[in-house]
Amino acid sequence: MSLLQKAWKLIRLRKDRERVVVLGSGWAGYTVARELDAKKYQAVVVSPRSYFAFTPLLASTSVGTLEFRTALEPIRTRRTNVSFFQGWADGVDFKNRKITIEEAVDDPTSSLALTHDRHAHQTQEQRQEERKLEAKKGRLFDLSYDKLIVTVGCYSQTFGTPGVKEHALFLKDVGDARKIRNRLLACFEAAALPTTTDEMRRQLLTFAVVGGGPTGIEFSAELHDIITEDLARVYPELVPFHKITVYDVAPKVLPMFDEKLGKYAMETFKREGIDIKTSHHVEGLRPGAPGIQPGESDEHSVFTLKIKEEGEIGVGMVVWSTGLMQNPFVADALNGVNGTPKTLEYTGAALQEAENGPDSISWKVKKDQKTGSIMTDSRLRIKLTGDNDNNPDAILKDVFALGDCAIVEGTSYPATAQVASQKASWLAKRLNKNDMEKGGFKFKNLGVMAYVGNWNALFQGGEGSNISGRLAWIIWRGAYLTKSVSWRNKILIPMYWMINWIFGRDISRF
Amino acid sequence: MSLLQKAWKLIRLRKDRERVVVLGSGWAGYTVARELDAKKYQAVVVSPRSYFAFTPLLASTSVGTLEFRTALEPIRTRRTNVSFFQGWADGVDFKNRKITIEEAVDDPTSSLALTHDRHAHQTQEQRQEERKLEAKKGRLFDLSYDKLIVTVGCYSQTFGTPGVKEHALFLKDVGDARKIRNRLLACFEAAALPTTTDEMRRQLLTFAVVGGGPTGIEFSAELHDIITEDLARVYPELVPFHKITVYDVAPKVLPMFDEKLGKYAMETFKREGIDIKTSHHVEGLRPGAPGIQPGESDEHSVFTLKIKEEGEIGVGMVVWSTGLMQNPFVADALNGVNGTPKTLEYTGAALQEAENGPDSISWKVKKDQKTGSIMTDSRLRIKLTGDNDNNPDAILKDVFALGDCAIVEGTSYPATAQVASQKASWLAKRLNKNDMEKGGFKFKNLGVMAYVGNWNALFQGGEGSNISGRLAWIIWRGAYLTKSVSWRNKILIPMYWMINWIFGRDISRF
């Protein structure tokens, strides 16, 4: 196909539709891209992942209750009309309405939790040099947009705790779940070797979960389930050596649940033998057993977790599920605004400034002071702020931000999948109907859920109804089955639940 | 548990059963270990893999027709009574009846085709030093046996072709299948980038399969299926760029099938647009496009395949499915015999030698001169040969060898799963009934099958019946479903066949 033909084809595909570029493929980005009316908009997703990960099921996949792919939906499908480029957003030009993309087809961090800026090791000058080279190689390219939707999400925050980035496992993406499953089974296999001492066995089978939010609690519960239901049958002699402990700096876990449900969770965990240690502080993680210097120790052996209140503990695996770090793209690329975009709408003080000509103001993206999140108005449009004494505000009418990287100014909705997907559906509907001015986004709390192990769960409805135990577990499973996206997964998920209940979870490791 | 308690436990577990150590977990090892009577024998499998791979389904998993785990069975299960240590056999002491094991819990080659001796980079002295260190760390340990069954299989042979070990993909284990699936999808994703030129697109989507045996043919057929059935729908603009070519040095492919079936396969492939190039010789494989020196080129870009008859071709992926190399364990560890084992039975010339006392002879394991395979008698017991002029023969009555690493002296059974599993079942039965002398092993050819794409297959029955097309495909699917081991997989396999037929194969890449 010649270049001319190709240009023709893009025009033909695009017809007279507006191009909506969506950065990110998480709850917000995937939802809005799918729900946009393909007759009106050409949706183009740009993301380093070729799939959407159904995050609430990742804990289940990390122990094999579900197969990994049941928590994934590919962005490209037969049935939807969404275009896709696998890449990182690398820069935005609001004035000329185009973004720069760094392709990520072979990105080594693909499918893993992100813990640091991938260009952090470079100076700004080095990065600029690299960008030129990448552009020459075709690895960096521009894409124009009519509307831009920023849903790049957050990175995992390790609070600078030494060794955590390098040696802890996370639970943000499917590659993380895969690493956890492999490591868990490797710990049992290593403990089963005849030369492993009982002390080493105990350390290999000590699992620490850092963070007492729903993810940490659900993972601990699933871990307890696979150990007692499956591993106990194939490694009966090893099960007495295992220990699961949840650490949290806060004085209580599951803060989003009311006291009664929190207490139920604590009691369930106690019965299951899972320790919850609140007001505990992780100070570091390093390879090797306590008391042994790195280098002396065995390669596949244990890690030493340092807890302020307890000292050093030998552990087989640390799963880190706490803390959000602002996305470097939001911190760096979405900062200063070059020139004044035509689609700016002035509000408040800015209205007066407009008389002087908007070009007199140097604009930047307005952010939350504490979290660094992008501030939007109630229509999810990003806000700019001017640098002069009047602190003028403005709204960029063609750029939206939602998901964990953004907050609606004046609200404090939590950084959850529920908020992200509600915002996404709201935005798609407004864009499809072209009635943005009708009214702002309002979050409707549909309740929170958490699995606590042994077929028990917590459910706290939006209107305050509290359910715990087996019934909550049925609601939990029913809700995730209903919410899972494709028919394929709606069939596979209950299939795996049933098969693993009958035959046990698969423990092949590869 | 104290050391004494542990010793007690092993004795208690063992009761008065003989310990049968099985080296390897392929078709031969997995089958014999499962079929041994747990009342009579304590079966202990030693293998670097914690699972058995149902190899005929690997090609299906490599394109997502089946999920990876449907081709795996964990060695440890709830239902069987097989012990397992994850490790490499590192040495055998026939006289004292013990083997040395190098643990392999975190082995980086785990689940991948083996192409070279993992200690090849070391001199014998270096390896001896390392062994001492490993023994000290508990990573090398001895295990005694009453009976030993050697089923270590073969490695993949690359015939020293430059770059093949490093850059080709194989199809011997589930990790290989996973790499192929990821690479295939990455090629399409890279080709979809707007900056990829049409020339680069054509190279990225050129797939070369080396080897026209059943594995190479079935993989090509499955690859053709996913491209035309699934990728054509999500990347419609890219499909015209793709090309699949099968290369073989021999003048024809599928030599085990009779002419009519071979012709049917060739015609089917022709209709599907797959090229078969017989009498072609691969001379090398390197990263980078033809005409571009390595280093200049892009990281994730294409490879250059050099064919004697065609010159250099740019390809996105080379799948190598030809050639068996003798296992280094067989070549090195199973060679000279230290001292004279008590369980030696002399045959032929050795009978006379025995009068002089067996210790006068220096024994070594008898091997096939051409392939280096272990020679066994018709009872699958390994043969030793003496070093003096009479070339005395002897049989080691408590050591068996089967699978791809062994042949029955005087036969030429092919190195197939069928031969391996028949030998394994025969041996388990003889050991269970303790009637080894009843009669030797005889192979019963149950026929050969190959999938050729588009719901067509070949089936050549043991008694010469030939079937091709849709009916053969039904036989093909039926046979593998029947032979798949666990109920879990017997349910999951048809489930995935159905779901992928209805919804298409999953193209998420992680």
TrEMBL record, chains A, B:
Pfam families noted in UniProt: NDH2_C, Pyr_redox_2
GO terms, molecular function: NADH dehydrogenase activity
Keywords: FAD, Flavoprotein, NAD, Oxidoreductase
Domain FAD/NAD(P)-binding: 19-331
Entry annotated with the keyword Oxidoreductase: yes
GO cellular component terms, A-Z: mitochondrion
Annotated External alternative NADH-ubiquinone oxidoreductase-like C-terminal domain residues: 446-506
Entry's family note: Belongs to the NADH dehydrogenase family.
Protein name: FAD/NAD(P)-binding domain-containing protein
Organism expressing this protein natively: Periconia digitata
